[in-house]
Amino acid sequence: EKAVEAARMVPNRPNREVLHVIPETFVIDGQEEIKDPTGMTGIRLEVNALIISSSTNAIKSITRAVDQSGMNINEIVFSPLATAKILLSKRQMDIGVILIDIGASSTSFAIFEEGDLIQCGVIPIGSTHITNDIAIGLRTNIEIADTIKLKYGYAIPDKISEKEEINLNKLDKNEEGTASIKYISEIIEARLNEIFTMIKGYLKNIDRDGNLPAGIVLTGGGAKIDGIVELAKSTMCLPTQVGKPIVEISGLVDKLDDPVYATSIGLMLY
């Protein structure tokens, strides 16, 4: 515990706050790659740890918002760690898996192997960026763009006919003309490809590109876009699925199966 706490004291970048210190392996008197040092003897104990930090301003903002709502904060958790509790099995985390959470304004990911978190990160692109792209591409407002994304959005433009169109007047009486569903699909594909290509770069850096047997588990609101599984498979060359709860939950089960709620349920389990 003291070794892990000492790792927390390692100088961090300015304006960053440490959220988690996750021990990976320990070193006892130069002997490396020790998973659990309990019961061993030695003079010098060191730890190789993964440190997850966040912007101090972001933490202050979310803390203030929760305080003003009249609730108390028990702990601040990096969301993929919580989401993994509900979506990833022990077997997946042992053989190698990446959890990708496509949220509104950002996409977070966590890579697990041999039961441990080995890499994680956040990309400042999310499903709201797709909505914005559609709004710009069709010269329409954000509300209509969001409706189009959810109702007609598809991530594989090659599977859509050039003739398929949407009458914008049916969505909003103030709008005129039509929009090509294939063109909308091309906009969605371009932005999702950008996200997956950036994550692929992270995998290359740790020599796991195309080398995670349990593949990709997608979650978050952005994971609901039709065709996203097929796109992720072709871009990242890994088996892909949209995450479903692996633990039994009661109550509004049909609604709680929605990827939007995965982090919330995961936080309760955490």
Description:
Strand 4 and strand 5 (107-113) form a beta hairpin. The protein contains eleven helices and ten strands. The two termini are 20 Å apart. It is 40% helix and 23% strand. It has a five-stranded mixed sheet, sandwiched between helices. Strands 2-1-3 form a three-stranded antiparallel sheet. It has 270 residues and is of the alpha+beta class. The model has no long low-confidence stretch (mean pLDDT 92). The chain has helices at 2-8, 56-68, 79-87, 90-95, 127-138, 142-152, 168-171, 181-205, 228-236, 253-256, 262-269; strands at residues 16-28, 31-34, 45-55, 97-102, 107-113, 116-123, 165-167, 178-180, 216-219, 240-242. Helix 5 crosses helix 6 and helix 8 (181-205) crosses helix 9 (228-236). The protein is elongated, with a radius of gyration of 22 Å.
Q: Quick summary of this structure?
A:
It contains 11 helices and 10 strands. The strands form 3 sheets. It has a 5-stranded mixed sheet with strand order 6-5-4-9-10, with helices on both faces. A 3-stranded antiparallel sheet has the order 2-1-3. A two-stranded antiparallel sheet has the order 7-8. A hairpin with a 4-residue loop joins strand 4 and strand 5.
